[in-house]
Specification:
With about 190 residues, the protein is of the alpha+beta class. Helices cover about 55% and strands about 15% of the residues. It contains 4 helices and 6 strands, in the order αββββαββαα. α1 (about 5-30) packs antiparallel against α3 (about 110-150), α1 (about 5-30) packs parallel to α4 and α3 (about 110-150) packs antiparallel against α4.
Length: about 190
């Protein structure tokens, strides 16, 4: 039999991995535009530069000169086309313009249709986070079952640990639901 500390360390690892999934969701949700232009909405955009996919903010200087415009000034002018292509390919609904020196990215006001589209995108991101949390739970449950099979943990300890993992999962899923509802409220009430 292994001591309870190993089961506790399993729970700590589960909590850490699930929290990581939620932090990833928080970061992704910050990139969903709700009001005025922000360089944060371009965080998910990656540009193919020098044979590698790089975040947009590492190949260009980003600024917001006015509330409905973002300007990307490439550090290397030869990347102008790649930057435009990457922004168009993202599912942000932005249409960049290139004047030879900078890429201007007009940020359209949100129509009701676009708000609903962004809301669906938020729901998709939240579901991906829920799936990540469930995957962590499944991995933990499989490890517990293996420990019982190898007779390293009693069935009672397994039951308690399975219940604890489920409790952690429920807390994390609830947090994801709250993040999704908050972002939806921001999107649909402006």
């Amino acid at each position: 039999m292994i001591d309870v500390n190993d089961l506790k360390s399993l729970n700590v690892e589960v909590k850490k991995r699930m929290t990581g999934a939620i932090e990833h969701l928080r970061h992704d949700l910050a990139g969903v535009r709700t009001g005025r232009a922000s360089t944060g909405i371009l965080d998910p955009v990656h540009v193919d530069a020098y044979g590698v996919r790089m975040p947009l903010n590492q190949v260009a200087s980003l600024s917001v000169p006015e509330p409905t415009m973002i300007v990307a000034q490439p550090f290397d002018p030869t990347l102008m086309g790649a930057i435009e292509k990457a922004i168009r390919a993202s599912d942000l609904g932005l249409n960049p313009n290139n004047d030879g020196k900078v890429v201007r990215i007009p940020v359209p006001t949100l129509t009701d249709e676009r708000r609903k589209e962004l809301s669906r995108h938020v729901h998709k991101m939240a579901e991906e986070a829920r799936n990540a949390v469930r995957t962590v739970r499944r991995d933990a449950n499989d490890r517990l079952k293996k420990l019982v099979k190898d007779k390293k943990v009693s069935e009672d300890d397994e039951k308690r640990s399975l219940d604890e993992v489920q409790k952690i999962t429920d807390q994390e899923i609830k947090q994801i639901d709250e993040l999704q509802q908050k972002k939806d409220a921001e999107l649909l009430t402006r």
